[in-house]
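Re: your question from the hallway

Yes, I did run it. Sequences:
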Amino acid sequence: MIGIIDYGVSNLGSLQNAFNFLNIQSEIVNNPNMLSRYDKIVLPGVGSFDYAMNKLNEFGWVNKLHHEIIIKKKNVLGICLGMQLMCQSSEEGIQNGLGYFPIKVRKINANGNLKVPHMGWNSVTKYKNFHSNMLNLTNNRFYFVHSYCVPINDQYTLFYTEYGDKFSSIIQKDNLIATQFHPEKSHKFGLNLLDYFGRVL
Amino acid sequence: MIRKRLIPTLLIENGNLIKTIRFSSPRYIGDPINAVKIFNEKGVDELNLIDKNAFKKGINFKLLENISNEAFMPLSYGGGIKTVEEVQRILRIGFEKVILGSLFFNQPETIYKFVEMFGSQAIVVALDYKYSKNDYYCFFNNGKINSGLTLKKSIALCNKLCVGEIILTNIDKEGTMEGLDIKTYSLHRLISNCQLIINGGAKDFNEVVNLLNTNVVDAVSASSIFIFYGKKKGILINYPGEHIFERVKY
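Structure:
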């Protein structure tokens, strides 16, 4: 059973909707003490870094997440802001992130005439040969909506995306995997990834 | 970007899908949930949903839930939004963005609060305009009240508030299918820090796809071309196939 974390800052309906469509069981978890019941965890996120970290701290998620993810090594999928929260820190705010990835999130450096937020459909390109089956790569497109990004990192970047700037679209480390785009909003391409996370990993 | 976005805008009134011309004379089209289902199947980029009488009758959350269940692409909702709680609820249901109209002119400081809490990318401002007294003025309350603010000043204010994107609608072109107001759009495109979506009067798929492929616009929104078919304007939900769009690398 997948647990989708509810810490008050995200669009959960679509994620659960996507898992339902794929016949993968999921539940929304709004009590950190219940986290141990789930085999896999999804950390979604929409909004600003500090606001989200404050919520995670406020509701007692940080320690429980650390226990389930770092100590018990459960598979976890971070999405959009969720991906950024899993990093060390962000230029967007002053709070510390969860620190699972030793990377600093920075502002998108789109060249002169490209507008930020990066909003729309873009493709991802393989950076490393790993978990390639996770994505249907032919003519792929995923929905991105963000102003800050996770820079490319030789150790953790699986796929990257270009928007005047090059940044990670998917990062991975042991049992952690995270996407900058919204798989639940990326039609069949995204559903493919969610299916992989839910069924294969 | 692979390509710029083409966004159908669906107008809702009393739970029904309708279509207006110049913001009036609503014509009943059908069931919005069914329309969303069809757009989803056609792989549409995203959808804008505007509820015309939500500011009077309140936000129809049940309808939004039903609509959200049919969509595996981004959704934006506008109509009657005033409070943080409403925005939160709409986003939780499954919408990516909220579209603010009257609130921008009545309480811009609340917009800033929304941006702080939910992030720029979730906050869209709709600027509906008319040409009047040698300039372009923004109107709100379904195009009835002149805000007194020019388009230029409104966009500058959006920049200040760090709004995520802006929808520019020419009220006099809306629903006419006479062609988009590129001239006004181009005059204002570079003033905006965020993406500017052109809306109002799109003629046909050729016009919009051409604009997207030649980088004249950031994104296009339209209504009639996705709902009507043929000279007699029969109702048929349609959307161009992926092969029509050119993929561009930035």
